[in-house]
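Session log. Operator J.P. requested a structure for one protein chain; no other inputs attached. Running the standard single-chain path with token output.
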Amino acid sequence: MTPIPMVDPAGEYRALKTEIDAAVLRVLASGRYILGPEGEALERELAAYLGAAHALGCNSGTDALHLPLVAAGIGPGDEVVVPAFTFFATAEAVSYTGATPVFADIDEHFNLDPGSLERSISARTKAVIAVHLFGQCAALDRISDICKQRNLVLVEDCAQAIGADYDGRRAGAWGEYGGISFYPTKNLGAVGDAGLMTARDARADALLRQLRHHGTSKTYHHDRVGWNSRLDELQAAVLRVKLGRLERFIGARRKAAARYREKLAGARVTLPAEHGRGRHVYHQFTIRSERRDAIRAALAAEDIASSVFYPVPLHKQPVYAAASRGLSLPHAEAAARTVLSLPINPLIDEASIDRICERVRAAA
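Structure written below.
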């Protein structure tokens, strides 16, 4: 049987080869490889697409969370509330600042539960990171209200959710800051590590531009200690080509998700829930089952990929477990035990989805 991969970044390249090759050659011929016109154009185009006041590139999705926390003044002695069910980088970005990540539970959509968020806030809490996991926005209306009432900085982790929206406003345009990953497997993927930060006001934008470039706003004059976190021109050029296809690719993902729903209707699995408050862009199509491992084994036997995002919630990770001893987050823990993400990408065909669903139904 033909293997079915989780993602197909090489296929995306083949589909856009002529334009991507031309963009890369344009950069190579220019001699401008760092902080040049491609990056500037990408920032303008993404700010317009996202509806964000400011957007600026950086070298990874992790830095796109870390540097906004630094810009917000988060540091030792502070606490930042994050959902326990997400990729490690969300909490890691907090730890980089010297602050303490405080873990809250998730709702039925795999995102930060506003009630658990409120119970997690202390006198030391300074910020909240709302992760839009698997391509669907968190409950941004309630989370934003909580942050405003408690005078907390809201950072959106949009690593998996570019193009998603909530109540008509796109992910990355709600909080004081947003962070986006362009890791090659993301919905808008680079050909290496790359990221983007959004900021609500000009002061924050200027500070982030210093922080990503060794703390300087004037060549060889350093106002603060910063980082080397610049988005290179080759990545920016490739991303500009792909940005022009992003809406089409999102449409293909949503069509694939609809096919999964049709073919898995009535199966002994729980399908991903949409809250109906905005567009889900389906970075992942994640089902749930107490027979998760059996389903995964059945798929693997047919050379069909699947992934568990994520098998260990953050409060159970070795690096955080001691500080979180006794913390019970039942929904995050249940998700880690039961979730299984099925192959989804803009190029997957209906025959592949039907084959996957046959195996899931048989093993569930």
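Operator note: The chain is about 40% helix and 15% strand.
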